[in-house]
Amino acid sequence: MKTRKSITRAFCVELQQELSIVAARREYFSQEPPRARFNFLCSSEPCRAQGVKITGVRYDVKPQEHPTFVAAHFRANPHYEHHADCEWVDEADVAEDKPVLEENDAQTALRKVKRKLDDYIDVFDPTLKERTRSAPSRDKPLPPSEEPPASATPSSNASNNRQPTETRTHNLERLVDSFRQAQATLSKEELALLTLRVPGQGEVTLRSYFRHIKFAQLGDERRVLYGGGLVERYGIGFKFTFFDRLQGKQVTLYVSPAQMQAYRSSRYISELLSHADEVRFFTVFALGTLALSPSGKSVSVKIEDLRHLAIVLGPAKEAMPDTKNDTGSTGDPVRDA
Ligand SMILES: [Zn+2]
User: Fold this and answer.
1) How many angstroms is it from 65 CA to the middle of ligand 1?
2) Using one digit for the tens of pLDDT, what is the confidence trace for 32-53?
3) Structural domains in the chain?
4) Is the peptide bond before 34 cis (omega within 30 degrees of 0)?
5) Ligand 1: distance of its center to the CA of 251 in Å?
C-alpha cells in the first residue's frame, strides 16, 4: 500500500536503529569525511521484514537559512509498497477530505496544517536524561535520543483499530527544524493553529514557545531563545554574540572547551561552526536562562547542556553581495508577528 502520513522516523541500516531525519543528519555529519550516506528501511516491522526502503532527503545538507527552504525529511520510495499494517499507511485518510469521526472544524483545520509539515511535533520534553559520553573521542555514534511515539489515548472510534499516535521528542534540533519549516511554509493564520505540549508547562502555541532574543526577559526560562549573531572560537569552545541587544545590553552565549569535550555531538557543532568565514551569521536556538553579568552591562544565555542548543547556518556571504553595512541585521528567520 502507499503511505499517506508524513514519515517521521525510519530504520537506519548502518546504525541499526530507528531515528528521525534530524538525528540522521547529526549522525551523518558526526562521521569523519569522506562521509557515507545511509540506507533507510520503513520503521514498521512488517515492512522492514520485506526490505521496504525509505528515502532520506537532505539529511546530508547542513541546516541553513535559505530563501527556498526545504526541510530534511523522509519520503516513501515509489518502488516499494507498504504493508497494510504499516504505521505510515492511514486508511482513515484515504478518502481525502472525509472528516474523521468526532472531529470538529478546528481539529480538521489543524490536521490539514500538520499534514503540510514533514515532521510535526506534538510533545517536546526538554528533560535531560544523563547521557554524557565517557570517552573524549569515539567513532561509533551512540544511539540518538529518539523515542518511539507514545500512543495517544485509545481511540473511542472502535471501527478504527489504528490508534492515533503523537510525535514526541527530547531533541531540540528536531523541534527547531519543525518550527523553521512551519515558519517558512505556513501562513500566519496556519502557524497560529499549531500548539506544542511541554511536560510541566502544559500546552502552548508553537509560535510562543520560541522567543527572539530582543524580546526575551531576564528570568524567563521556559522558552527557546533565538537570534542571529557571530561566533568566536576559544579552542574547541566558542562564544556566540547576538546581533540584537536586550534592553540595550549585549547578549552572549559561551560554551567552554570542557563543555564541548564532554558532548557526544561536539563534532557536529564544530562542523557547523567551521563555516564561519562563509556565512553572514549563525542563528542560535537555546533553551536556557538569561543571567545579568556582575557588572550589569551584559547578559549571558546559560544552557545546562549542549543538547539544549541548536545552530543554523545563515545565508552564504556570496549570496548576499551587499553585506558591508548590514551587520545590524537581526538574523531573524521569523517574520515579524
Ligand atoms: Zn511501511
Assistant:
1) 32
2) 999 999 999 999 999 999 999 9
3) 214-319 (2.40.50)
4) yes
5) 46
